[in-house]
Design a protein that fits this description.
Layout (H helix, E strand, L loop, with lengths): L1 H46 L3 E3 L3 E4 L4 E10 L5 E12 L1 H7 L2 E9 L2 E6 L28 E17 L6 E16 L6 E9 L4 E9 L4 E12 H8 L6 E16 L5 E17 L8 E14 L4 E18 L30 E18 L6 E16 L6 E9 L3 E11 L2 E8 L9 H5 L4 E17 L8 E17 L4 E18 L2 E11 L2 E6 L6 H5 L12 H11 L5 E17 L6 E16 L6 E9 L3 E9 L7 E12 L4 H8 L1 E17 L2 E18 L10 H8 L5 E11 L7 H18 L1 H9 L7 E4 L8 H16 L5 E7 L1 H16 L14 H16 L14 H19 L4 H20 L9 E8 L1 E2 L5 E4 L1 E2 L1
Parallel strand pairs: 5-7, 6-7, 15-16, 24-26, 25-26, 35-36
Antiparallel strand pairs: 1-3, 2-3, 3-4, 4-5, 4-6, 7-8, 8-9, 9-10, 10-11, 11-12, 12-13, 13-14, 14-15, 16-17, 17-18, 18-19, 19-20, 21-22, 22-23, 23-24, 23-25, 26-27, 27-28, 28-29, 29-30, 30-31, 31-32, 32-33, 34-38, 35-39, 37-38
Length: 964
Amino acid sequence: MQIDRTRSRRRWRLAAAGAALVGAYALAGFFGLPWLIRTIAGDEVDKLGRKLEIGAIRFNPFSFELGIDALKLSEADGKPLLAFDALYANLDILHSIIERGAVLTTLRWTAPDIALLIDADGSINWNKLIPPSPDPAKPESAGVPHVRIGELIIEKGRVGLEDRSRPQAFSTTLAPIEFTLRDFRTEPSYENLYEFSAAATSGETLSWSGTFSVQPIASKGHFSLSKLRSSTLVAYLQNQLPVHLVSGSGELSGDYQLTLAPSLALDLQIPLISLHQLALAETAQAAPTVSIAELALQGLSVSLAKREANLQRIAITQFRADVQRNADGSVNLSRLYTPPTAGTKPADDASAAPWRATIQRVDLIDNDIRITDHGVQPAIQIALNPLTASITGLSSELAAPLHVDASVNINRKGTLRLQGDVGLQPVSTKLSVDAAGIDLSVLQPYLATRTSLRLKTGLLAVKGELAYLQKEAPSEPQLDFSGAAGLSQLNVEDRALKQDLLSWRDLRLAGIDYHSQPARLSVERVDLVEPSARVTISPSREINVTSALVPPGAAPASASAPQAAASENKSAPALPWQIKQIHVSKGQMRFTDLSIDPNFSAGIFALGGDITQLSSDAAVHAKIELAGKVDEFAPVLISGELVPSRFDHYSDISLSFRNMDLVRFNPYSGRFAGYNIVKGKLTTDLHYQIRDRELVAEHHVVLDQLEFGDATGSKDAVPLPIKLAVALLKDRHGVIDLALPVRGSLDDPAFHVGAMVGKVLTNLLAKAVTAPFSALAALFGGGDELAYVNFAPGSAALSEAESAKLDHLAQALIERPALKLDIPMAEAAEQDAAALARQELDRRVPAAASAGASPQNTPSQRLRALEQLHRELLVAAPGYDAMPAAGDADARLAARTGLVETALLQKLAPDAAAIDRLAADRARSVQAAVLAHTDIPPERIFLTGRHAASLGGDGAVRMELSLQ
């Protein structure tokens, strides 16, 4: 008992000691450590001559969580340096011991506010907080301590920047700043993931993400800068900018790769730097002299190690400039550039290799330059709009020439082409310039970028009077031209097929009258002599006209392209114009189909006529009256009206072809119909109407005396009995008359007139040959039952309804003389055999009356007659012994009658010859009914072999007829 009390006191003492230690540890952690941190931090800041204010400091010695609230660090004069709302850190003590380093679960910094000041001498306020090293010769640490942070978050940060080193102090604020670093480690080659974003008060935003390693110090990732404003650049760079940048904005994004060891290496890949609405002026207060709607730098790559910078393309869109050449020869654009002052260029290492820079291509797109030359009197004004140019070969090797290819419209009238090389050191040019009397073939490089056409020849001649008058208002020059112009020997080739696409001998414009104020252009007459056009379908079934209008390898224009083009035309200032008459003579159009073997070729020749009242006015309808011929005896007429500037909103065109020989279409007939054409004529009337991009097309096709010859065995032939279809469509005079309407929208990319016509025709033929009797019934009556004849089982007699139906069929055969009728010997063996056996039994033993039976024909008398016939045919009495004896007398009489009838019907069943005779009789009945119409030659009606008939819904035997 005494021992137990002693042990109990010991346990209490140990517990009390442990509790005391824990309490002491808790007091030291909860209160001592915060006091120590506050004291040490305050002492160190005091040594630096700064002020420190710290709010609450909390430390949990059990979870190792540290929190600091409301810290403020300021200069001695009270200017802020650093402040934050809260700092929280959580040390994972267990893993820190295991990994022999600092392992933080979370490190969160909330609302840090940093004041960064760059003084006039370039010093930074924060550098003054770094105490001088007591031993500069002390070697660096042998390694990087092991640190791991599960999550490091900086949120709602702010950096206030003031740069007093600029001529005028510059200040800005970055807020909010967000930074996230997850699973940070100082292990060698470990790639830490980070995300950083910040925004400036002026609107710029920066995002930066990627990976970095501590050992070695290296990083790679992606960055983007958006909403960059020119005002920010001007405010910061000030007089260091070589130009007066009035306005502009931009953005860029790219990838980088940075390595600090063993040497500094930085690689940048920036796919696009985009600048918008740039404007330059001679002074900050002057109106812009040059503006650029869009400046895109594409494919920029920079390598610091290789000292190389390459730019794939500079695209300048909507460059606008007002160029003034003064009387002394100076140009106002030179005043836009201010060279940097001496000594501002940063020093470079003379031993380092020089930088190499290249710009592969510079494109100027949709530019507008207004030039006023005051070197002559009165001053000349020239409008270059649009100006398109491509420059290739820019390099830091200034001795290398640049290749320039430029085209420009001059005052909306002339065309100027510049092509050649330009040298920068010394400045030199080698350009081919042609502005009048030019061969249009020099425009081919420009044309080739947009089409697959080749302009082989074309001579432009202009004869007339050109007057230029400079009015008091320099923006309104007076330009007048009157006279004639011509374009002769035009030859446009399809580069893909290496054949002519469009040509003419001469194009003459007479009575040209042009005035710039007010703007108007009229032409009295245009004579087009010997025009020739060629439409070719290639072996790959591409139409040359379609493929030639797009560059090689380019996708076809989208359905919205016409609308987009129309929208652009609406936005551009239109020049009112009219052409009173176009006269065409000796024209021709050739069509060749190389996808057919043998190839097909046809043409319209001796095409001539007039097109009148062409105008840009949408209220004026141009009229077309043209005539030509296919071969020698097939006339062609084209007539109608349309609005040239908006043909897709209003057009009404008719085309007529007469007396065309169908034999020339044998390549198509042999391939797609499967038969060559022996003879036939084609006449067709086509009518196309377009209203607000909705097409209504009527195709009236007449085929006269079409006859097919031998089968070609083509694998592409339509899987239809073509000859049957022709026979169904051809009337008694040998004429096929078809109407093929087509409706559709020009905005539907799947809508093609030719394909739709083919589909309508194929559907018409398919419907005719798959249901020929229905097609005949639709024309001549008789209903859908025209394809079959019903007979009562065991009978070859035609009912009144079936006879009437055969009359309709005979009338159809008269109207379609090419059709032949097949009549099968139809039978339903089981039903017909049962009916014939019943007929023979009833002939030998008439049935008893169902009501009011006479004494001579009662059921009992008929049973006795049946029993007598049973003994005669089966040579035995009926076997009643196996029948049940139950039931009344009438039931026994009915059962015995049924037994005897069944045995007799089996005995009287007809043989196969009787069934054949019945089938033949049925066929002859139908044949006789059809040939009763004497207009049908007997040789068109064929009796075919035996054919199993189907049964109608009423149990009738149905004979299926067929046509050929």
